[in-house]
Amino acid sequence: MASKPNGTLYIGVTSNLPKRVWEHKEGVADGFTKKYGIKTLVFYEQFETMEAAITREKRMKEWQRSWKVKRIESVNPDWRDLYDEICN
Length: 88
Description:
Layout: H1 17-26, H2 32-35, H3 50-61, H4 65-75, H5 83-87
């Protein structure tokens, strides 16, 4: 998730992506995302198991910012909000 194009980034894991993104958008999720106004879903990946998702999350959190931006832009060059896409 991002605050704006090339803005503050947040990486997380959830078993219910539409619900979790809605919580961030509505500001009901206290913490980092609320503090920095992170409300736009710009990238997501799906995994077969929670263990695989957590492993990926931990690895991506260690990435340099430029790697994260490059990964986002490889699938979403315009930094569109993907929320509607995951709700359909």
